[in-house]
Design goal:
two-stranded antiparallel sheet; elongated
Length: 121
């Protein structure tokens, strides 16, 4: 993906390409945000409608698998869906990009490895 940019010399418009690491990171961040937003849109209305809009008699709370229904459908279900989607994102969607070599690493390697002349002396 490339974008037009005004050149500093004012000679015209130059093209530059976005780094693939940036593109992957942005794509992954958007996917994670959409997952969070979907769970928010599910959890808040379901919890509110099932937990606060009912006249519940103490001792007669509707339950699912032994817990209040609003907790199961409003909190546990989106949590489990988010866990499943997160596992897919981690193992199938997110890419491990090569970031190159840090300048500190190259300095350490040069200092720790003997050069050809020092090794022969």
């Amino acid at each position: 993906m490339s974008f037009p940019v005004d050149s500093p010399s004012g000679s015209g418009i130059e093209q530059f390409e976005l780094d693939p690491v940036f593109l992957h990171s942005r794509r992954e961040a958007v996917a994670i945000f959409l997952l969070w937003f979907f769970c928010l849109l599910w959890a808040v209305p379901v919890s509110y409608s099932m937990g606060f809009n009912q006249d519940v008699v103490p001792g007669k709370v509707p339950t699912t698998l032994g817990m209040p229904s609003w907790v199961f459908w409003g909190l546990l279900l989106p949590w489990l869906v988010a866990d499943a989607v997160t596992i897919y994102l981690c193992f199938g969607f997110i890419k491990n990009d090569d970031l190159g070599q840090a300048p500190e690493e190259s300095d350490e390697r040069e200092a720790s490895s003997p050069s050809g002349e020092e090794a022969s002396a």
